Write the structure tokens for this entry.
Amino acid sequence: MNKKQNFINVVLIYVLLTMLTRIGYTGTTETLICEKLTSFYGLWKDAAFGYDPNRTERAAWIILDSAGFYSFKRWPCSAERNKEIWKGQIPDHAIALVHTHTVIVDEKPSRQDVQVAQKLKMILYVISIKGIWSVAPNGQMKKQSGPHWNENLFAVSNERNRIWTFCF
């Protein structure tokens, strides 16, 4: 490649990154995308939408593979009240942690949630009756979505593969 072609490639990459930034793509795990929301909804449903009479929570690791696809590794249910416990190593390629809060717990990440995000150096999401919150490794909290985040989901079927995906 000559210098002119290299310059053109650099300009094209800059333009592409600028366009992606302007439409809201940040390239971070804070972006609540379709793949994540499907699994978020599954955790929330399994936690009885925050109304489990035993006040149990549900949790999962968010994993990003080398091809750029997300997967979730659910934690075994410990049946503990208002907490969940992980035993063992953090899965390879884990980039975030998500868990539910019951309706009697504050919607925001707790002090312990902030400490976990800082210790693991990854984003931690909290699903509650009032929405979805995130806490970054630097301790910064952000409300990602309000209480109706799951009401706008609709099913899109991929009939060939018999896969259902939920999207906004």
In short: Residues 32-167 form a domain with the Cytidine Deaminase; domain 2 fold (CATH 3.40.140). The helical segments are 3-22, 34-46, 111-120. The chain is about 25% helix and 25% strand. Residues 135 and 141 are 4 Å apart (CA to CA).
